């Protein structure tokens, strides 16, 4: 064998009981598993040996909701994910990413999601197609590849932007045909499905009939639909039901992104969501979901605006904010009516904490709520928020403290649940989920709170997402499968990241392998770049 991992507690990803074994790796795959007590001779031998000393050996974790679209190209180290044991990320989330595009669309989307990924001024955008972007991942960093594997979802908002701009109107038949062709091309080039951000413009302007037609294309290519749906606040249950009905009509598998029930109106209502999903599953619907193990959410400040204020794109947003009468109308919608950008709930400025800014000169805002910054200046919160939006060129990111712990725990127990970090890596003070989601599941929720056993928790993070992605050789410790593996200590594994120190790496995860190569060894990042694009299985 190239490598033998000895005396490991194998947690194989199926949810079954763990067992002791030696695991042999050859040519990037699991070549042999010799269980303790098995009558098999001779014992596995290897060119290299790693004494696991009772560490748990699990399949590499799959992050079903990641925002590393540019980080993978920018940072060969990418310890934010590698150190967590993540061996595969699903990017292209929330309906906005960088392929497929033309020159106009690329410039617009770069500005629209600066808060997620930076402005991209350090990236060579040589591609315009989905296939070109996946090729760029494979040839990144001097042709060596990327830190961890990546799968891509076609972003429906970007597709709409490409086909018809930022207009709030139904697509014409010709425009819909163009969007369908773009989705089909992206699927043929390797995307695993399509995402939407239905509280983000311009994707939110699509009606159900338009989305259904696009989902039919996705289904024909054996992909899945991953919506950030229209509300996680007021009307959340109706928004979930809309996505279930839409995808059932299209006969398209559904994966619900960061499936939370937030804001005061939804306290204790996770069982209502799960009842809805259980009924659909009993009727034969193909549904999965992901969550992150924290209560606050994270997005951009500009996303809080009402959708009408965002029609026309970033330049139009700025023009409206600069106009006093229009800005007052925006404030009224946000503070009194409840803007659709804030999920139909009147915004509470004391829950909106600035986590990152594009302009370093605005760093004094980071770590404070809008309400706190406004009080320090002796002005109304909207005045502070409006100034920040304009001065930071719409690039500010926020933490939104609107979640409920009982909802988080109830949803993560569900049988179709998977793990997703929703990790935004930009900003001075990002959400700690970007660096801590997977050890947080294993440490806090499995070991400390006992919400699930460690075996069941690992299944949520490995085999379940692999099944959704239709990956035939990942997600389980099994002979013949890829040697994407993580060794962790169930007694000490924990997220190091906190809201005060969000970029602290986890503890208790000493070794991570991709294709049998150590990307983390003895708790340190190696220089190995074993990650590649993972393209849809035909």
Structural class: alpha/beta
Quaternary state reads single chain
Measured by DSSP, the beta-strand proportion falls in 15-25%
What count of domains describes the coordinates?
2
Shape: globular
CATH fold topology of the largest domain: TIM Barrel
Which runs of at least 5 residues are low in confidence (pLDDT < 50)?
none
- Overall helicity: 25-40%
Number of helices: 20
Task: Sketch the major β-sheet.
Answer: 9 strands, mixed
Rg calc: 23 Å
CATH level-four homologous superfamily name of the largest domain: Metal-dependent hydrolases
For the record, what CATH class of the largest domain applies? Alpha Beta
Task: Report the strand count.
Answer: 20
CATH architectural arrangement of the largest domain: Alpha-Beta Barrel
Query: Mean pLDDT, rounded to whole units?
Result: 96
- How many angstroms separate the termini? 31 Å
What features would you describe in this structure?
The chain is an alpha/beta fold and 538 residues long. The chain has two domains: 61-295 and 403-473, TIM Barrel (Alpha-Beta Barrel), CATH 3.20.20; 303-401, no CATH class. 34% of the residues lie in helices and 18% in strands. The protein is built from 20 helices and 20 strands. The chain has helices at residues 71-74, 79-82, 103-112, 114-117, 130-138, 140-143, 156-164, 173-188, 208-220, 236-250, 270-282, 307-310, 314-322, 324-337, 370-377, 381-391, 405-412, 433-448, 454-461, 463-468, and strands at residues 3-10, 19-26, 29-35, 48-51, 56-59, 61-63, 86-91, 149-155, 193-197, 224-228, 254-256, 287-291, 297-300, 352-356, 397-400, 417-419, 485-488, 511-514, 517-521, 524-525. Strands 1, 2, 3, 4, 5, 17, 18, 19 and 20 form a nine-stranded mixed beta sheet that branches. Helix 9 packs across helix 10, helix 10 packs parallel to helix 11 and helix 18 (433-448) packs antiparallel against helix 19 (454-461). The two termini are 31 Å apart. The model has no long low-confidence stretch (mean pLDDT 96).
């Amino acid at each position: 064998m190239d490598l033998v991992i000895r005396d490991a507690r194998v947690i194989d990803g199926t949810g079954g009981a763990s067992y002791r074994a030696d695991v042999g790796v050859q040519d990037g795959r699991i070549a042999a598993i010799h269980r303790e007590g098995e009558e098999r001779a001779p014992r596995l031998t290897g060119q290299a040996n790693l004494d696991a000393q009772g560490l748990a050996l699990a399949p590499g974790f799959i992050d079903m909701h990641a925002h590393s679209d540019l980080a993978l190209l920018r940072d060969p180290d990418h310890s934010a994910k590698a150190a967590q044991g993540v061996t595969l990320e699903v990017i292209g989330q929330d309906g906005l990413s960088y392929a497929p595009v033309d020159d106009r669309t690329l410039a617009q989307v770069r500005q629209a999601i600066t808060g997620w990924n930076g402005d991209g001024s350090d990236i060579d955008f040589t591609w315009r197609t989905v296939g070109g972007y996946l090729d760029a991942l494979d040839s990144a960093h001097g042709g060596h590849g990327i830190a961890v594997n990546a799968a891509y979802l076609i972003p429906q908002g970007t597709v709409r932007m490409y086909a018809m701009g930022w207009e709030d109107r139904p697509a014409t038949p010709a425009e819909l045909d163009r969007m369908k062709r773009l989705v089909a091309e992206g699927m043929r080039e390797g995307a695993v499905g399509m995402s939407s951000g239905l509280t983000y413009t311009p994707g939110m302007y699509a009606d159900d009939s338009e989305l259904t037609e696009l989902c039919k294309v996705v289904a024909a290519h054996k992909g899945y639909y991953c919506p950030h749906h229209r509300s996680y606040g007021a009307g959340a249950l109706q928004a979930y039901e809309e996505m279930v009905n839409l995808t059932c009509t299209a006969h398209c598998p559904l994966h619900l992104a960061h499936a939370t029930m937030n804001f005061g109106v939804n306290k204790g209502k996770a069982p209502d969501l799960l009842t809805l999903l259980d009924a659909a599953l009993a009727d034969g619907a193909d549904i999965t979901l992901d969550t992150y193990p924290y209560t606050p959410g994270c997005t951009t400040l500009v996303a809080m605006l009402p959708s009408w204020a965002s029609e026309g794109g970033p330049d139009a947003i700025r023009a409206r904010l600069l106009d006093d009468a229009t800005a007052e109308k925006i404030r009224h919608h946000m503070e009194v009516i409840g803007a659709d950008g804030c999920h139909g709930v009147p915004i509470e400025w004391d829950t909106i904490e600035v986590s990152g800014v594009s302009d370093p000169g605005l760093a004094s805002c980071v770590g404070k709520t809008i309400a706190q910054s406004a009080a320090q200046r002796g002005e109304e919160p909207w005045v502070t928020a409006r100034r920040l939006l304009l001065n930071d060129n719409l690039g500010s990111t926020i933490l939104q403290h609107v979640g409920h712990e009982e909802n988080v725990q109830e949803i993560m127990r569900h049988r179709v649940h998977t793990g997703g970090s929703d990790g935004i890596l930009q900003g001075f003070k990002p959400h700690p989920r970007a660096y801590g989601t997977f050890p947080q599941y294993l440490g806090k929720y499995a070991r400390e709170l006992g919400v699930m056993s460690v075996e069941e928790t690992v299944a949520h993070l490995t085999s379940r997402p692999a099944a959704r992605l239709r990956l035939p050789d990942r997600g389980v410790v099994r002979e013949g499968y890829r040697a994407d593996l993580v060794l962790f200590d169930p007694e000490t594994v924990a997220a190091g990241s906190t809201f005060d120190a969000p970029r602290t790496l986890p503890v208790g995860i000493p070794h991570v392998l991709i294709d049998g190569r150590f990307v983390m060894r003895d708790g340190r990042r190696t220089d190995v770049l074993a990650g590649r694009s993972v393209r849809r299985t035909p």
